[in-house]
Amino acid sequence: MPDPPPPLLEMSGIVKSFPGVRALRGVNLRLAAGEVLALLGENGAGKSTLIKVLGGAQSADEGAISLNGRPVTLRSPQEARRAGIAVIYQEFNLVPGLTAVENIFLGRESTRAGFLARTDERRRIDALFQRLGADFDPAVPCRALTTAQQQLVEIAKALAFEARLLVMDEPTAALTAHEVDRLFTLIRDLKRRGLGIIYISHRLEEITTLADRVTILRDGRNVGERPIADITRREMIEMMVGRELQDEFPPRTPALGEVRLEVRGLRRGRAVRDVSFDVRRGEIVGIAGLVGAGRTETVRLLFGADAREAGDIRLDGRPLDLRSPQDAINAGIGLLTEDRKHQGLVLAHSVRDNFALPNLDRLSRHGFVRQPQEREEFARYVDRLGIRIPHQEQHAGNLSGGNQQKVVLAKWLARNCEVLLFDEPTRGIDAGAKYEIYQLLNDLAAHGKAIIMISSELPELIGMADRILVMHDGRLTGEITDARHATQEAIMHLAIA
User: Fold this and answer.
1) Range of the domain at 378
2) 142-177 pLDDT, tens per residue?
3) Which of the residues 31, 80, 97, 142 has the least number of beta carbons within 10 Å of its own beta carbon?
4) What domain count does the chain have?
């Protein structure tokens, strides 16, 4: 029998260290042509570093990489692209002011007699867009495109120059269900054409649907590799977190008290239309709905971030006039925003500065911050929430997603908010950190806080909420009073009503 062909990609013994951190400890990875390999691990497990080494953005300290059995040295992203490797990062590498065509050919422009061959470029892009099912004008600036359209531009960049290996990092984080279906169809088509695909996602239901095989990292090491048919969801989570998992969601016995938050007739244009509901002491109320249903717009009105056109808001029977986020903070309302990187944190500032921002009235005197008190108080929350930081001066932008979310939580807990609005609290966070945040939500509810939780992951709402409100086109279309016995089908029926 002839020898089997070598794998499309083989990474052997990859080691990478940074000052004070050993990110990769001899990691091995292999990928066949026409295969979808899921790369899993908690935040900080080494996934991003491994992908940056493969993409030429960082150099390994030790180890070897081969493509189709031939050793390669990838000292820059340009060398990786020439080798047929394309990496689509979670945060796209597009120039917003340039068109799709200009972004795709940036640095690799077609020329003729010293002039840009725009007609040739447009012809190639039209053929490529037809293949991808992209139905938008590639001459439109990328800033005007939706997230899904920008993702297609990134994929087109890879395919325009004959990539053989495609890495996708959290590609569905901001997509609608319909856009996810289209993306999966495209990935399966690329797989049939012989591309090897490394797929990174914290959404395990996507992994079981799409992947052929899974490789799991923990603390910079390989801890498991299985065909997807031979591993369960629970086994994947336990390998990632390194301990036996009794339940995906922590148990809770709710003890509901009196109504704390009353919302009546809330309205803002077509985004929020006549929304009314209550939240009781110790209750977690989930809000479900498709992207654009009005969920985020509703909690922004409750936080004073947008001006409401009509509606009444009461907290503990007291009417609130929320004209700004500061009004909401003063009233005891905190918002964990959907986009923590741009709206929840100042990434260039230290984690201690971020913690202090909504608490400066307590932590300062005569215009000066009392730094010893600030450090002491933040240290308590670092310990309480298990925030992994080398020191309090660490920039927030350098933390993993789970630790960033914990810093946002810490600043609102220190504020002792009575109403907490969680908008996609576990988006982009690994299974272990999710469980810790779920436990924290339960603890807050047990202490009488009123909690509103928005999530696009229906199993999360079913596992955590006491009641689920469902929105569609700015309106409440239904309420599920016994969330723990709800079905995803029942929620989706109300969400598309």
Assistant:
1) 259-495
2) 988 877 788 888 888 888 877 899 999 888 876 767
3) 97
4) 2
